[in-house]
Amino acid sequence: MKNNLLKLSALFCTVGITISACTSGDRTTNTTDSVMADSSVVVALKPAGPAPEWGKTIKTEMQTVIEKLTSYGDKPIETLNPTDARKNHTPTDAVMDLVKENNITIPQPQVDTTGRDIDVSGGKIHLRIYTPKAGNGPFPLIVYYHGGGFVIANLDVYNASAQGLAEQVGAVVISVAYRLAPEHKFPTAHNDAFTAYEWVVKNAASLKGDPAKIAVVGESAGGNLAANVSITARDKKIMIPVHEVLVYPITQANMNTESYKLYAQAKPLNKAMMGWFTEKYLTTMIESQNPKISLVNANLKGLPPTTIITAEIDPLHDDGTMFANKLSDAGVKVNSRNYEGVTHEFFGMALVVPEAKAAQAYAAAQLKEAFK
């Protein structure tokens, strides 16, 4: 796995245009964003070929990233063993190569990073801590969980998301390298995720953080972990996060939803990969109905206000919308926003994809409001 690191601007995005919205008290706010290019930050990228059959609505910048990712010629992840799958190029590699090829300037980081190993049941895990360079704190804290289907990816692959949030929110972000399957089966990642959150709660002051202002954020599998952290904190009666941001989270095990059907062949995530991830993380398929995996079946009452971000061209699109509705039905305040013309994994691509810049700014604004 290449260790390219994305360095993101701390500037807020001003390119989001709301084209539909529905608000009702504390119930779900569903918004779809159509985004115009912002030439001051994002260089317009042009794809080489026509839009793919699986994504006719794909935006040009997003398509260019997918074309670059496809150009590496890697074998499909679902045909590989986990060790080889982790060697495949990632969407981050594609973005960084496009940055080089197009002479895109990478802003200087506005955070310092340090590492910390902490004890978990049966071993240790690593945390990467992003601390704002400006100010002395105490800063709000964000515990961040990366994606990868519980099997692949690492802190470097998702650096752009964690760093971007730290810079835009002005928060200390703790990115968690939970243990991966199949070496560590369910519920290891879930247990590691909560142990990391509990460690942050107990050690907030030493991180220059405000212990009363802790949020959780996760992407894909990490979105599932972040939601589970809130549930476990509620059940164990320790401080629950003040907010959670779930970016195209895994929230259920039914792979026959409309978005799974529409985008079964999508890139960089397809239906076959989701089946592969599930088989690698779970010991038996019966576990797929566990409320930790199928969050739509969990007790969701008393959870913190939640922001859900989805991508249009994504098998997991409906997971996000279903969970937003379930949370709202349980009395949880939910805001959700869908981004058109982009795929799974778009959130960390703010250097080249305008919708990613808009989504990060939206998430940052939601977190800043929660931290007030």
Automatic annotation (TrEMBL):
InterPro entries: AB_hydrolase_3 (IPR013094), AB_hydrolase_fold (IPR029058), GDXG_lipolytic_enzyme (IPR050300). It holds the Pfam family Abhydrolase_3. The keyword NADP does not apply. Gene3D superfamilies: alpha/beta hydrolase. Keywords: Hydrolase. The keyword Zinc-finger does not apply. Residues 142-347 form the Alpha/beta hydrolase fold-3 domain. One of its GO terms (molecular function) is hydrolase activity. This is Alpha/beta hydrolase. It comes from Pedobacter chinensis.
